[in-house]
Each structure stands twice: as structure tokens, then as C-alpha cells.
Amino acid sequence: MNIQIFGKSKCFDTKKAERYFKERKIPYQLIDVVKYGMSGREFDSVLRAVGGVRNLVDWDGKDQEITNMKYMEDAAALEDKVFENCKLMKTPVVRNGKQATVGYQPEVWAQWK
């Protein structure tokens, strides 16, 4: 397994995901998504794995941009906005090759080989 955890430093679910892999002695790479973002290929891979950008956005976030994004119809424009401003993503985004999850989902991670 080649696990990458894209998270925010103050996100409780990111810390829980990190603990999940640490307790099982599964090597992982933790990336602060706000500080370092994602490469274009990583972002595209995650979008395909999670079923589109609407599943990646933290709709419960308090950022004013999220409120405005709820009314955006153009998926490409929405993707660009989230790619440029990674703090709008729900975290953690856990990636294993072409597979990815958004949020804390240990039941899915347990099935990864």
C-alpha cells in the first residue's frame, strides 16, 4: 500500500486517520493540503475516485466561498476553485493508488490491500 493522507493541521478527522494507520503499522505520508496543496494529477485521480468535485467539497465549512459555490453549475469552474483553494476540501482525503476516500472512513481502508 502507498497511503497518502491529505489533511489540515487542525482537523480532528485527519488526526484520527493518521492514528488509524499508525496503530496498524501501515506506512503513510501526511501532506498538509492547505500548505502544500495537491498536484494536478493527484487532484484528478482523487476526483475520479470519489465521484466528482461535489463529493470533495466541505459543504459544512464556514468559508463564505463555500456558500457561493453551492450555486455554481459549471463543474469545471468548481473544480478549478477547489484546486486553487484546497482549504475548501473536506479532509482527510486518503489516497491509495487509484483509490481514494474523503472523510474518516476506516471501514473502506480496512478493505484496501
Structural summary, described in words:
With 113 residues, the protein is α+β, with helices and mostly antiparallel strands. Helix content is 42%, strand content 16%. The protein contains six helices and four strands. The protein has a four-stranded mixed sheet with strand order 2-1-3-4. It is globular and about 40 Å long.
What structural category characterises the helix and strand content?
A: alpha+beta
Strand order of the largest sheet: 2-1-3-4
Total helices: the number is 6
Q: Whole-Å distance between the termini? A: 6 Å
Poorly predicted residue ranges: none
Q: Total number of β-strand segments?
A: 4
Mean pLDDT: 91
Order of helices and strands: EHEHHHHEEH
State the shape.
globular
DSSP strand content: 15-25%
Helix % is 40-55%
Largest sheet: 4 strands, mixed
C-alpha-based Rg, rounded = 14 Å
Lay out the secondary structure:
Layout: E1 3-7, H1 12-23, E2 28-32, H2 33-36, H3 40-50, H4 64-69, H5 75-84, E3 93-96, E4 99-102, H6 106-109
Parallel strand pairs: 1-2
Antiparallel strand pairs: 1-3, 3-4
